[in-house]
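To whoever is on call:

I kicked off a structure prediction for a single chain this morning and the downstream step that reads the tokens threw a length-mismatch warning. I double-checked the sequence; it's 315 residues and nothing unusual in it as far as I can see. Pasting both halves so you can look.
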Amino acid sequence: MATPRKALFGSYTTRLAVVGMLVLIGALVVASVAQAAVSISRAELSGTQLRIEGQASPNRTITVDGVAMGTSDGAGKFRIERSGFTAPADCTVDVNDGSTTAATARLSGCTVSSSPPPPSSSASLSSLTVSPTDVVGPDPATGTVTLSSAAPSGGFTVDLTSDNTAAATVPPSVTVPSGSTRATFTVSTKELTNAQSAVIIGTVGGDFSTERHAVITVWDSFHFSNGSIAILPGGNGSGRVTSQPAGIDCIITGGNGSGSCSAFFPVGTIVRLDARPAADSSFLGWRGLPGCSDPSKIRVARGTTITCQPGFSLK
């Protein structure tokens, strides 16, 4: 018996709908995974003792509700333990490693109030924070304003400004919803050729005595990832200064330097400097300049030049 064309068409349409739904679900799952910057495996609050464990990008500062509380290791794992932590009203915290999107974790052992905290007419601006505080332009950062108590009916508005709009800009204001104690806003940054800082300022009602602020530094990609070491010749003698890893090979003759007397290294690199006097000179040691108190293990700092001065003297 032949199957009616209408039934065949209906069956075909149903299969197309099912396949389309599966593709949509798969796309949503992939998008959700792609946005997950931090994963939380443990989040608990025992009294005022906070404990959070999870996975993030390697060697990143981990913030909880905009406050730096730890650092992930080389594999991206982190563990935070903090005493004296006040339970949020909704028992949730935002955990971030400097990515655009924070991960929200619900704290086990924390009890949500049966009703939201009553709005208070005495609410005031308690703090303003930015996370991360160092970014490569034009990557954004997240600002957070926190109140001393729950916002009143109609919300609580905080006026925002940046003292360096060439580096970072903010919206004119942010409103904390009624019954809440905090709100977030986006800090937009510019692509730069040199590092610049901006102070993000929050005030209430045009009264500068209510001012709270945070500093964000916007970097170009090279100086965000590198720092340098420079050799400053000292004394009237001659010698040679080299580095491990390679980069510096500075020939000092009669107190004057030539060759590679400065070099860039990736941030966090431990650099060892070796000084060898010429036949007619003696090595007197290193002058204790900032960042170079021990030339055998100098840690390279972001966007910073660390200067080291060897002393060579004629015999």
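Update from on-call: the warning came from a stale cache, not from the record. Cleared it. Sanity check on the structure: Helices lie at 5-35, 221-225.
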